[in-house]
Amino acid sequence: MNTPIRSHRFLPLGDYYFGGDPIRIQTVLGTCICITLWHPSRRLGGMCHYLLPSRAATSNSAMDMPGVYATEVMELFDASLRGSRTQPSEYIVKLFGGGCMFPEHVRGLECRKLTCTDARRNSCPSVGCKNISVGRQMLTARGYAIAAQDVGGDGSRQVVFDVPSGDVWVRQGGALGAPLAEAV
């Protein structure tokens, strides 16, 4: 069933969406992470754009939105799934982002010479690496299986998610208007 897209929405940093509207959601990432969830039979979808793994003990008011932190955005997903009476295992989950935005400043770091793993990402000084690791850990702990991902590397990403179809497109770097890669 092909449901036409009726609206478009740009998802800024710290924002979150969950629902079954015929909507196309777009965001741009650097070190941030975008998670998309899609329920194929109910045609429900969710998308977040978080900046940091968790809220510091002392937090400034500029970052008080819960969608800014991975730990809190996962609570938003939990509440949305409870409200829709669905389970994490029913969703197709995709993870994007965690890019190194200033690679020239971290070329000398020992971690840049090694293959990235979640264990290495936990101790890496890069926010992007920590965001990737925390996102994977939290999704797995809640019973989600990651179906696809495009994480790490250098530079930005543009992500577009069609809620009715569950299709997600990603493109690294470039301007917002440039063509996107094939669906992931």
Write up this protein.
There is one protein chain. This protein is α+β, with helices and mostly antiparallel strands and 184 residues long. The chain has a single domain, classed as 60s Ribosomal Protein L30, Chain: A (2-Layer Sandwich). Helix content is 22%, strand content 28%. The protein has helices at 70-84, 103-106, 118-123, 127-141; strands at residues 7-10, 16-19, 23-29, 33-39, 44-50, 92-97, 146-151, 157-162, 168-172. The strands form two sheets. The chain has a five-stranded mixed beta sheet with strand order 2-5-4-6-7, with helices on one face. Strands 1-3-8-9 form a four-stranded mixed beta sheet, with no helix packed on it. A hairpin with a 4-residue loop joins strand 4 (33-39) and strand 5 (44-50). The longest helix has 15 residues, at 70-84. The protein is globular and about 45 Å long. The two termini are 19 Å apart.
